C-alpha cells in the first residue's frame, strides 16, 4: 500500500480526521492546538487525529495528497476542508459547526 492509499483509507474510514502535529490531548504546535479547540467548540468530542510528527511519510504524503503545504489539515466526510486559518473563518461564520454536525449525523 502506498502512502497515498493509506491516507485515502484513513480519510474514508473516519467522518472527521485532523492531520496535526501532536495529538488532540497534547498538540505540539499552536495551529494544531487551535484546530482541536475549534472542533471541540463545535461540539465534536470524538474525532480521529493523525500525528504527522510520528511518521515523516505521512507528514509529506498528506501535503502532496491535498496539494496543501501546511499542517494541520482537516477532512470531513472525505472532503479536504483546509487548515486552521480556513477552520477559523468557517467557525466564525457558523459553517464549521454545521459541517461537522452534519458529518456526525446531527
Which structural class should the secondary elements be placed in?
Answer: alpha+beta
- How do the SSEs run, as a string of H and E? HEHEHEEHH
Give the amount of beta strand, in percent: 15-25%
Supply the CATH superfamily name: Glutaredoxin
Q: Mean pLDDT, as a whole number? A: 96
What is the CATH third-level topology name? Glutaredoxin
Describe the structure.
- The protein is globular.
- Helix content is 50%, strand content 16%.
- A four-stranded mixed β-sheet has the order 2-1-3-4, with helices on both faces.
- The mean pLDDT is 96.
- Strand 3 and strand 4 form a beta hairpin.
- The protein is of the alpha+beta class.
- It contains five helices and four strands, in the order αβαβαββαα.
- The protein has a single domain (3-103), classed as 3-Layer(aba) Sandwich (Glutaredoxin), CATH 3.40.30.
Key features?
single chain; 106 residues; alpha+beta; Glutaredoxin; four-stranded mixed sheet
Please outline what is shown here.
With 106 residues, the protein is an alpha+beta fold.
Write the layout of secondary structure elements.
Elements (H helix, E strand, L loop, with lengths): L2 H11 L2 E5 L9 H12 L6 E4 L4 H11 L6 E4 L2 E4 L1 H10 L1 H9 L3
Parallel strand pairs: 1-2
Antiparallel strand pairs: 1-3, 3-4
Amino acid at each position: 500500500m502506498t502512502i497515498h492509499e493509506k491516507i485515502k483509507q484513513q480519510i474514508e474510514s473516519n467522518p472527521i480526521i485532523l492531520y496535526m502535529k501532536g495529538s488532540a490531548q497534547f498538540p505540539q504546535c499552536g495551529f494544531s492546538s487551535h484546530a482541536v479547540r475549534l472542533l471541540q467548540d463545535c461540539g465534536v468530542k470524538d474525532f480521529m487525529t493523525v500525528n504527522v510528527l510520528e511518521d515523516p511519510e505521512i507528514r509529506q504524503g498528506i501535503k502532496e495528497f491535498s496539494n496543501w503545504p501546511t499542517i494541520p489539515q482537516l477532512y470531513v466526510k472525505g472532503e479536504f476542508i483546509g487548515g486552521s486559518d480556513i477552520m477559523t473563518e468557517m467557525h466564525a461564520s457558523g459553517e464549521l459547526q454545521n459541517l461537522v454536525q452534519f458529518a456526525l449525523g446531527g
